[in-house]
Amino acid sequence: MSGKIFHTDLLRSLNSVGKDAEFTTDDRSTIKLPDSAPVLPPPIEDICKLPLTIPFVLKTLWNEYGPTTFRPALARWAPIASPYKTQVRAFTVEAEPLERILFACRQHKTTLTGLLHALTLTSLASQLTEEAAPALASGTTIDMRRYIEPNLPAYPGFKPERTMANFVTLMTHEFERGLVSQIRSLLSRPAVEGTDKSAALSPGLVDLIWSAAARVRREIEGRVEAGLKNDLVGVMKFVGDWQQEMAKTASRPRQHSWWVSGTGVLDGSLPKSSSSSDNAPSPPPASGDDDAWTIRRAQFALSTETTAAAINISPLTVAGERLCVGGSWQDCLFDVSLGERVMADLESWLGQIA
């Protein structure tokens, strides 16, 4: 979300040059810093209540420090390792087929995020054996700005929807052994086959994918409606030493096999006269205005976070333009062909399913 805010502000600034922005050509190689220090955004715990219930805290502690034997969804197939480099792949979906995909999502009571979860689940189930991954778990990032009250007296001028800050949380989706086994039984490409061609999706498998996608959407809606009650961010106050905590995390099995982290739709056109306080989507420049800056294509990918998900799926689109789906993973975590197969499957199946 912070990246989206940055590019929106950059586009606004580019289109305001010559009107309400200072622009000099005396010395373009010199960066002029403001006289006063910038006002940093407040931490989320200072501006929002993060209530916790005792059962949630106990469950979280058990998941973090308890035995992992009875948690089949942990990503044991992708143990935490080094080096800390990132592999990045991406593909695009043109605007017309994207409209068909989004229409199909609406028909099946889900979203693109839910569909990407279900398709990634299907791809990994086809490549990993039941012994390596009897069940799977994924994560969805959630923007916390929606919960921040506007016009906070203690922070005058603070606008969360216009502020680049770490206002994000994460929720987990677990796909149980029975579902993963059912997906494997319906796939025409066994994990041991190693073919480079994406499997054809049978009608039964397509129905299962849509069911999983709709379930993910319901889980996200439930988490959003619950607000900040029993959120993982609220538990962080119990961590006394973060270096020690991260070292412990690195010694345990990875929790998520993949994340879907999207920033939604980026508005690619802003009028030159738009002010910095304008938060609404802006109409495209007038016809014939060749001097206006616009965004036609955007791509988003996450760098490797060693103890986080094994694979990161990052969709982003510019309004009215093509969708770009980024995929990233830690180098040497697994054979590069696995990550490339996930991305190839997503690209192929998005076309098949709509």
Commentary on this structure:
- The structure is a single chain.
- The protein is α/β, with parallel strands linked by helices and 354 residues long.
- The protein is built from 10 helices and 7 strands.
- Helices cover 35% and strands 13% of the residues.
- The chain has helices at 2-16, 44-47, 54-65, 95-107, 112-127, 177-186, 203-225, 232-235, 242-250, 336-353, and strands spanning 86-93, 136-143, 168-175, 258-260, 265-266, 311-318, 323-330.
- It starts with a helix and ends with a helix.
Descriptive tags:
globular; alpha/beta; seven-stranded mixed sheet; 10 helices; 354 residues; Chloramphenicol Acetyltransferase
The gist of it:
GO terms for molecular function: N-acetyltransferase activity. With 354 residues, the protein is α/β, with parallel strands linked by helices.
Describe the secondary structure blueprint for this structure.
Elements: H1 2-16, H2 44-47, H3 54-65, E1 86-93, H4 95-107, H5 112-127, E2 136-143, E3 168-175, H6 177-186, H7 203-225, H8 232-235, H9 242-250, E4 258-260, E5 265-266, E6 311-318, E7 323-330, H10 336-353
Parallel strand pairs: 2-4, 4-6, 5-6
Antiparallel strand pairs: 1-7, 2-3, 6-7
Helix pairs in contact: 5-6, 5-7, 5-10
